[in-house]
Specification:
Layout (H helix, E strand, L loop, with lengths): L1 E6 L3 H18 L3 E6 L2 H6 L7 E4 L8 H11 L4 E6 L2 H4 L9 E4 L4 H18 L3 E6 L2 E6 L3 E7 L2 E6 L3 E5 L2 H5 L7 E5 L2 E4 L3 E5 L2 E4 L4 E3 L2 H18 L3
Parallel strand pairs: 1-2, 1-3, 3-4, 4-5
Antiparallel strand pairs: 6-7, 8-9, 8-12, 9-10, 11-12, 13-14, 14-15
């Protein structure tokens, strides 16, 4: 799944790009989650890494796209950045903020779909759908889809899958960095949950297809519910 930000102060342009992404998703079969921002300040003030791509207008109120992009690169060096603007002479300066490309308005679907193809290729290079772990001296590959949840007890990590539980000494934080942030989320400090296997949330318990019910802490609840909502919203975009 691709998580894409649209930073555009003209609502009709934002709707146009959102529509193009929905069309591309339908034609390609690639799930896309879209989040729109009406200006650069709104986008950058609460930004956290996790987006695969950003379509950024340049001429905006409060702070322009170039300034927002400069701030973005201080937080996230890897996200694909594409300027969408009628100011091509400014977009050429995008090399300063490592922009992958720029599209000149009015944007056609053909041009936009070419950029989406580039984003998909970049995403494929950066991501994978499995993780390698070393247990009992053997290097094991575990597919993301097979994981129900991951648990840590003291310094032992337990990966609960649809076939077995894989145990090894390690850090939950280090393992979390290797997972897809759009697919996995913590419901408390001890558990990382595969969101695609969540069947429900009851008060402070997360229910899984495996039949397990995991405690959800008060401090993690808001972020976990946001992640869960974002996942299912994106999953329905196909």
């Amino acid at each position: 799944m691709l998580k894409i930000a649209i930073v555009e102060n003209e609502p009709e342009q934002a709707d146009l790009l959102s529509g193009y992404i929905a069309r591309y998703s339908q034609e390609s079969g690639i799930k896309c989650q879209v989040v729109t921002f009406s200006n650069g300040l709104e986008f950058i003030s609460g930004y956290t890494p996790g987006f695969d791509a950003v379509f950024m207008d340049i001429k905006m109120l409060l702070i322009d796209g170039m300034e927002a992009a400069e701030k973005l690169r201080k937080i996230d060096e890897d996200v694909v950045l594409i300027f969408v603007t009628n100011m091509a002479q400014l977009a050429i300066k995008g090399y300063k903020v490592n922009a992958m490309d720029f599209i000149v308005k009015p944007v056609t679907y053909f041009d936009f779909s070419l950029e989406m193809d580039k984003i998909c290729r970049a995403h494929d290079r950066r991501t994978q759908d499995y993780v390698w772990v070393k247990t009992a001296g053997v290097l094991r590959r575990i597919d993301f889809n097979a994981i129900f949840y991951i648990e840590i007890i003291m310094h032992d990590v337990y990966v609960h899958t649809d076939r077995e539980t894989v145990n090894f000494r390690g850090s939950l934080k280090n393992l979390e960095e290797k997972l897809d942030p759009a697919l996995f989320s913590r419901c408390n400090n001890c558990y990382i949950v595969n969101l695609q296997h969540v069947t429900g949330v009851k008060e402070d318990a997360v229910m899984l297809e495996s039949g397990d019910e995991l405690h959800m802490s008060r401090t993690r609840k808001r972020q976990f519910m946001n992640d869960l909502t974002a996942f299912f919203s994106g999953a329905s975009a196909k």
